[in-house]
């Protein structure tokens, strides 16, 4: 079985070591594998090279269409596992794109690895593959708010959100561009009875200046509502670059 991965700047698979920049494991050394393909299209997505290929008319603020052959690579599960094993950190972050679209292959990958704590970053619209789910330590679920540009019925599936809210390994991370976005978060929290300490608010932005400006008012909103604050540490350290 194969996995479809994003490519790094060298054209090879985007498998790398770095400090986790967001959420529950922020600051922890991790090995990352970035899968290609996504079922949503966020206008501010910082990994549009995983889905906005030539011929895809879904909007993005940069307006760039990527060549699929240059930005995707297919590896067998065994090849992917071998590439992961070349890295030292034994916390594995599986991200995308939307990684759960490749659940069956991820189940094979997880079964072939030894000694890894696995976390998954997902947009929350896809159910975990039953066999893969047993290998996952925690999920970072990032439902997309209205400012993402996605249709609400695609981005905020009530069946899936109910399932994630009932999953104790799920932590919720919401991308916030303006203070009014937090009203959407509060509505989702109330509807699905999500404890506030399971919710992270993270500023939208791909540069340190924008992140710092938004964090200045987002911190107060986190204090007011009992939410956690997530920065984007990797942006401050390395900029908006692949493989970091």
UniProtKB/TrEMBL annotation:
<feature type="domain" description="Radical SAM core">
    <location>
        <begin position="25"/>
        <end position="240"/>
    </location>
</feature>
<feature type="binding site">
    <location>
        <begin position="19"/>
        <end position="21"/>
    </location>
    <ligand>
        <name>substrate</name>
    </ligand>
</feature>
<feature type="binding site">
    <location>
        <position position="42"/>
    </location>
    <ligand>
        <name>[4Fe-4S] cluster</name>
    </ligand>
</feature>
<keyword id="KW-0949">S-adenosyl-L-methionine</keyword>
<feature type="binding site">
    <location>
        <position position="97"/>
    </location>
    <ligand>
        <name>S-adenosyl-L-methionine</name>
    </ligand>
</feature>
<feature type="binding site">
    <location>
        <begin position="142"/>
        <end position="144"/>
    </location>
    <ligand>
        <name>S-adenosyl-L-methionine</name>
    </ligand>
</feature>
<feature type="binding site">
    <location>
        <position position="38"/>
    </location>
    <ligand>
        <name>[4Fe-4S] cluster</name>
    </ligand>
</feature>
<keyword id="KW-0004">4Fe-4S</keyword>
<comment type="similarity">
    <text>Belongs to the radical SAM superfamily. 7-carboxy-7-deazaguanine synthase family.</text>
</comment>
<comment type="pathway">
    <text>Purine metabolism; 7-cyano-7-deazaguanine biosynthesis.</text>
</comment>
<dbReference type="InterPro" id="IPR007197">
    <property type="entry name" value="rSAM"/>
</dbReference>
<dbReference type="GO" id="GO:0008616">
    <property type="term" value="P:tRNA queuosine(34) biosynthetic process"/>
</dbReference>
<feature type="binding site">
    <location>
        <begin position="44"/>
        <end position="46"/>
    </location>
    <ligand>
        <name>S-adenosyl-L-methionine</name>
    </ligand>
</feature>
<dbReference type="InterPro" id="IPR058240">
    <property type="entry name" value="rSAM_sf"/>
</dbReference>
<feature type="binding site">
    <location>
        <position position="34"/>
    </location>
    <ligand>
        <name>substrate</name>
    </ligand>
</feature>
<keyword id="KW-0456">Lyase</keyword>
<keyword id="KW-0479">Metal-binding</keyword>
<keyword id="KW-0460">Magnesium</keyword>
<keyword id="KW-0411">Iron-sulfur</keyword>
<dbReference type="GO" id="GO:0000287">
    <property type="term" value="F:magnesium ion binding"/>
</dbReference>
<comment type="subunit">
    <text>Homodimer.</text>
</comment>
<protein>
    <recommendedName>
        <fullName>7-carboxy-7-deazaguanine synthase</fullName>
        <ecNumber>4.3.99.3</ecNumber>
    </recommendedName>
</protein>
<keyword id="KW-0671">Queuosine biosynthesis</keyword>
<keyword id="KW-0408">Iron</keyword>
<feature type="binding site">
    <location>
        <position position="47"/>
    </location>
    <ligand>
        <name>Mg(2+)</name>
    </ligand>
</feature>
<feature type="binding site">
    <location>
        <position position="45"/>
    </location>
    <ligand>
        <name>[4Fe-4S] cluster</name>
    </ligand>
</feature>
<feature type="binding site">
    <location>
        <position position="95"/>
    </location>
    <ligand>
        <name>substrate</name>
    </ligand>
</feature>
<dbReference type="Pfam" id="PF04055">
    <property type="entry name" value="Radical_SAM"/>
</dbReference>
<dbReference type="InterPro" id="IPR013785">
    <property type="entry name" value="Aldolase_TIM"/>
</dbReference>
<dbReference type="InterPro" id="IPR024924">
    <property type="entry name" value="7-CO-7-deazaguanine_synth-like"/>
</dbReference>
<dbReference type="GO" id="GO:0051539">
    <property type="term" value="F:4 iron, 4 sulfur cluster binding"/>
</dbReference>
<dbReference type="GO" id="GO:1904047">
    <property type="term" value="F:S-adenosyl-L-methionine binding"/>
</dbReference>
<comment type="function">
    <text>Catalyzes the complex heterocyclic radical-mediated conversion of 6-carboxy-5,6,7,8-tetrahydropterin (CPH4) to 7-carboxy-7-deazaguanine (CDG), a step common to the biosynthetic pathways of all 7-deazapurine-containing compounds.</text>
</comment>
<dbReference type="GO" id="GO:0016840">
    <property type="term" value="F:carbon-nitrogen lyase activity"/>
</dbReference>
């Amino acid at each position: 079985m194969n996995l479809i991965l994003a490519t790094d700047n060298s054209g090879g698979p985007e498998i790398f070591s770095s400090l986790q920049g967001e959420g529950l494991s922020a600051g922890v050394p991790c090995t990352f594998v970035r899968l290609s393909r996504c079922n949503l299209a966020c206008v501010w997505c910082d990994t549009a090279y995983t889905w906005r290929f030539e011929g895809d008319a879904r909007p993005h603020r940069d307006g760039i269409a990527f060549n699929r052959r240059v930005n995707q690579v297919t590896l067998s599960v065994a090849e992917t596992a071998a590439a992961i094993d070349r890295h030292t950190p034994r916390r594995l972050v599986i991200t995308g794109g939307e990684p759960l679209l490749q659940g069956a292959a991820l189940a094979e990958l997880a079964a072939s690895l030894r000694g890894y704590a696995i976390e998954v970053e997902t947009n929350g619209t896809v159910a975990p593959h039953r066999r893969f789910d047993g290998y996952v330590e925690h999920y970072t679920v990032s439902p997309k708010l209205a400012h993402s540009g996605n249709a609400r019925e695609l981005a905020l599936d009530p069946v899936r959100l109910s399932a994630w809210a009932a999953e104790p390994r799920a932590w919720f991370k919401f991308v916030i561009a303006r203070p009014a976005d937090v009203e959407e978060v509060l509505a989702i929290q109330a509807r699905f009875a999500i404890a506030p300490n399971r919710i992270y608010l993270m500023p939208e932005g791909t540069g340190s200046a924008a992140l710092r400006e938004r964090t200045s008012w987002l911190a107060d909103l986190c204090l007011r509502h009992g939410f956690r604050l997530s920065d984007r540490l990797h942006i401050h350290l390395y900029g908006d670059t692949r493989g970091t």
